[in-house]
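May I ask for a protein sequence together with how it folds?
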Amino acid sequence: MDDHGRGPGPRPEGQGAAYDPEPADPLPYEGVWRFTAPAVDASVPQARHAVRDLLLRQGVPVSEDLVHSLLLIVSELVTNAVRHAAVLSPVLAVEVAVGAEWIRVSVEDNHPYRPTALEAAHSETGGRGLLLVREITVEAGGMCDVEHTTSGGKVIWATLPLKPVHVL
């Protein structure tokens, strides 16, 4: 996997400059990192390991539960890109964006099909990946979506809070 650099990146909705009267200096772990990989099965564990290593290297304050959730999301999204987009998109991109209170993982490919999280029949062995991503994200108090890219492909992303959500 190649590291294509880092820099200031997109924030989840509601966390932009309009909500920050005076933007604070970024924390040491804040940034955006992007990796590309071939759309092949071997890229799934490579992406998972790269994300885990990045979180450790940058000192991102994540709980072990959040790490497991993020890595499961990365695995599902990369697997979907490999299985369903490789014909039109031989390369995929994984991006990790970390803010002071949130972390976003996304997978981008050049296939135009925009999937939806569908319920799979109990007899089927697949088809639950996006449903699982959505459920993990919602349970953690985050959000996820699929967007079209300017190149005609798509990016599927999930944003999770770094701090646990307390339910009263």
In short: Helices lie at 43-58, 64-85, 129-139. The longest helix spans residues 64-85. The CA atoms of residues 147 and 155 lie 5 Å apart. The chain is about 30% helix and 25% strand.
